[in-house]
Amino acid sequence: MGKIKLISFVLLIVIFGPFRFYDLYAQPEIGGFLQLDKRVYVNDNALPLDDFYNRFRFETSISPNGNLYIFSSVDFRFYDVARVDELNDLENINQLFPTNISLWEAYVSVYGFLIDDIDLKIGKQRISWGTADKLNQTDNLNSKDFSDIYNFTEKIPGWAAKLSYYLGDYTFTAVWLPNFEPVLLPRNGTSLFLGSDLASLKDSVILPANKLGNSMFAFKLSGNIAGWDYSLSYFNGYDDIPILTSLDFNPDPANGNLGKAELSFPKIQVIGADFSTEISGIGLWGEGALVIPDKVFTDISAPGMNYQTVALDDKPYFKFTLGSDYTFPGGYYFNIQWMHGFFTERAGELNDYFFASLEKVVFNNQLKIALGGALEVDRWNSINENYGYGFFPELTYQGIDNLEIAVGTFLVGGKPVTLLGSWNDANQAYLRVKVSF
């Protein structure tokens, strides 16, 4: 706890300290949430995942004048599973009660930068693009947070400079991202997203060199025509999912591995478009991303042979998400989405995913009943051998402001060749308590 208190104290001093002397009228705001998330596996042959964590988010903000806004947040993750491998670990409180602390966001917003119609935001920030409900294909500016398999749509804020220029009904956005940040994977759960082919190999990951020529950038033009919100975007950077670039089969039985593997991150460009509207109470949205990758080769060596294969071709491929929602008489809310290409999938391996949910609030709006489901299809010409499915029921108590108590299950299955089918051993039941302040 000493480390947490120290970080919180330093954060308060850094953010609020200057204004105690220069602007006595600046009133800081404090907020955040505490989320307690307890889970259990529901099958006997469960994966040895250690991704069950609780969360505390502490947020601070201050606006010393009408043109300046400062925001920061610290994210605390405290895990349920102890990291104990030997007897001496029982002497270390950090092993028994693992806690991760990270500066989640920290940015400065300047309104009316140079001219009234330009806003500038600099710092560690979450930049969300796309109109789909979490299944965004054009949201490429922040790295993916797969640390919790149940919340696989989360993203991690990253360092960026964002300039927004307002032109009447249009908004032009330019973003510069100086540093590349890779995906965050669940502890002991890499195979859930990247497969298990590398499990018996000693691997290394090569990040893009930290230099100006490798910085990333993006542009977006958004507007509205006759009730249709839309945007066109362009991203030039790197895919945060690594790809195999070198494989050396050199078995070492003494160490229990078959050789060495090297992974790196492919350079990509993404041309995106999205829309959203409402027609007769029916919400409609969609977004698509034309991904243009650089060609990536895999160098393969083994005793007596050396050759090269194409790991990723430079041919463009298209991913999209289409969705709709509607509230039926009686208060039944229905949401459905079709996602072509999961976040980790590339050309030649784009599966189709269908997500649907039905929600109903009862007992004077105190209880929300939600029934969610998913269907994955790998090959339409042989669905019987290429399907995955999911079932996500949840009951949430929301009778008190700022409090949610939810119970539910995360149940997936199907054929092993599909993503959802490979998650079969990660089925969970959970209790979640979230308090916002």
Protein described:
- A hairpin with a 2-residue loop joins β11 (216-225) and β12.
- This protein is globular.
- With 437 residues, the chain is mainly beta.
- The two termini are 21 Å apart.
- Helices cover 8% and strands 55% of the residues.
- It has helices at 2-22, 93-96, 191-194, 419-422, and strands spanning 29-41, 53-65, 68-79, 99-111, 118-125, 143-145, 154-156, 158-167, 170-177, 202-205, 216-225, 228-238, 243-252, 257-264, 267-279, 282-293, 296-302, 305-312, 317-328, 332-340, 352-362, 367-377, 387-397, 403-414, 428-436.
- The protein has three domains: 1-107, no CATH class; 112-322, no CATH class; 351-437.
What is the helix content?
Answer: under 10%
Total DSSP E strands: 25
Quote the average pLDDT: 90
Number of domains as seen in the coordinates: 3
What's the gyration radius in Å? 24 Å
Structural class: mainly beta
Give the overall shape, derived from the CA principal axes: globular
Largest sheet, described in full? Answer: 18 strands, antiparallel, barrel
* Number of H- or I-type helical stretches: 4
Distance between the termini: 21 Å
Question: Which stretches are poorly predicted, pLDDT < 50 over at least 5 residues?
Answer: 14-22
Strand residue percentage? over 45%
Order of helices and strands: HEEEHEEEEEEHEEEEEEEEEEEEEEEHE
